[in-house]
Specification:
By secondary structure, the protein is of the alpha+beta class. It folds into two domains: 36 residues, no CATH class; 115 residues, no CATH class. 48% of the residues lie in helices and 12% in strands. The chain contains six helices and five strands; from the N terminus they run E-E-E-H-E-E-H-H-H-H-H. A three-stranded antiparallel sheet has the order 1-2-3. A two-stranded antiparallel ribbon has the order 4-5. Helix 2 crosses helix 4.
Length: 163
């Protein structure tokens, strides 16, 4: 069993059965993510926003093996579940952008035929986000409306989360 505590200076991890503990200062985490250019469209994310975005976009692939080993099973389940829901939202966006106008036309021409089968985008071949010109801001807005990201996502920063 381990206890993870967020302090004003970093994250402390204490293991109960062993005398082992570790401390990860926030400055180290910020430097490592600031080395990458986090520009998405015209919106630049801070460290906290980028971490939440990566968690939804990539799921468990956003973490290295050491981080995964320190996570509880419930945390892993939550990350996988949110990633799956986020992927469904993206697939629906891609499907709507690709086939939305065609489906509206077919609904008018053939009102007796139901086209609900492919609307989740899982069973259709869809272009990439870049090809469809779906921006990161569009994705973030969709995730906020689906309550996968907090309503104040755009105003999240280190100062607002200090204890």
């Amino acid at each position: 069993m381990k206890t993870i505590t967020a302090t004003p200076k970093g994250i402390a991890i204490n293991y109960e059965r062993t005398e082992k503990s570790s401390f990860i200062p926030y400055e180290t985490m910020e430097r490592s993510t600031q080395n990458r250019v986090n520009r998405f469209g015209h919106y630049q994310m801070n460290t906290i926003q980028y971490g939440l975005y990566q968690q939804l976009m990539h799921g468990m692939k956003a973490y290295d093996q050491d981080q995964i080993n320190t996570m509880s099973e419930s945390a892993k389940f939550t990350i996988r579940n949110k990633h799956m829901r986020a992927t469904e939202v993206i697939n629906k966006m891609k499907y709507e952008k690709t086939y939305g106008y065609i489906n509206k036309l077919f609904d008018v021409i053939f009102p007796q035929i139901k086209l609900d089968y492919y609307k989740d985008g899982r069973f259709a071949d869809l272009p990439t986000l870049r090809e469809l010109k779906i921006s990161t801001v569009d994705i973030i807005d969709a995730w906020i409306s689906e309550k996968l990201l907090p309503l104040d996502f755009y105003s999240l920063n280190e100062q607002s989360l200090k204890l």
